[in-house]
Amino acid sequence: MTTVLHLTASGVSDGSVSRAATAKIIADLDPSKIITRDLAITPMPQVNSQWINARLVPPQDRSVADAAALALSDSLIAEIAAADVIVIGMPIYNFGMPAALKAWVDLIARPGVTFSYTENGPVGLIKGKKAIVAVASGGTPVDAPIDFATPHLRQVLRFVGIDDITVHTAKDLLPLAA
């Protein structure tokens, strides 16, 4: 039984190449359960000073306001914990990831929860997960010097402990989309 967390970030609903590419990946995986998080339709809030401060308060010392500030972040991290595979559809906008995906990244990167600092540097705490990323890049070739999205997403996933990462271009998954 495989549970997939499906993240989509394209601002385009109908005709989105990254959405079509992740649909193909998920069909090939044939999971028993899919958790869907459409970051463009239900955008993530930007982190603010309340969230930044609350994430550093030990759980037993959090106020009601601190807990409320972290509630969405806690839910997002629970979705990752529940998944075996994380499938991310990432279009490249202006050489980077969409703001909606960056907001998700900011909300899931939590010290003491998804990573910890050690004397040897940071250590990711999310283990045993696989990430599959479908990149729709238009005129920005994936992994070219002007692609700031793909290396950034790989770094963030590794930072939180997800080392099994596969990146596909939408062109590879959907040859007719080229």
Automatic annotation (TrEMBL):
Domain of life: Bacteria
Classification via Gene3D superfamilies: 3.40.50.360
Cofactor: FMN
Chain residues that bind FMN: 10, 16-18
Pfam families: Flavodoxin_2
Domain Flavodoxin-like fold: 3-173
Claim: Oxidoreductase is one of the keywords in the record: yes
Record field: catalytic activity: N,N-dimethyl-1,4-phenylenediamine + anthranilate + 2 NAD(+) = 2-(4-dimethylaminophenyl)diazenylbenzoate + 2 NADH + 2 H(+); 2 a quinone + NADH + H(+) = 2 a 1,4-benzosemiquinone + NAD(+)
EC number, UniProt record: 1.6.5.-, 1.7.1.17
Gene Ontology MF terms in the entry: electron transfer activity; FMN binding; oxidoreductase activity, acting on NAD(P)H as acceptor; oxidoreductase activity, acting on NAD(P)H, quinone or similar compound as acceptor
Co-factor binding comment: Binds 1 FMN per subunit.
InterPro entries: Flavodoxin_fold, Flavoprotein-like_sf, FMN-dep_NADH:Q_OxRdtase_AzoR1, NADH:quinone_OxRdtase_FMN_depd
Keywords tagged on the record: Flavoprotein, FMN, NAD, Oxidoreductase
PANTHER family named in the record: FMN-DEPENDENT NADH-AZOREDUCTASE 1, FMN-DEPENDENT NADH:QUINONE OXIDOREDUCTASE
Subunit (UniProt): Homodimer.
Described function: Quinone reductase that provides resistance to thiol-specific stress caused by electrophilic quinones. Also exhibits azoreductase activity. Catalyzes the reductive cleavage of the azo bond in aromatic azo compounds to the corresponding amines.
Protein name per UniProt: FMN dependent NADH:quinone oxidoreductase
Originating organism: Yoonia tamlensis
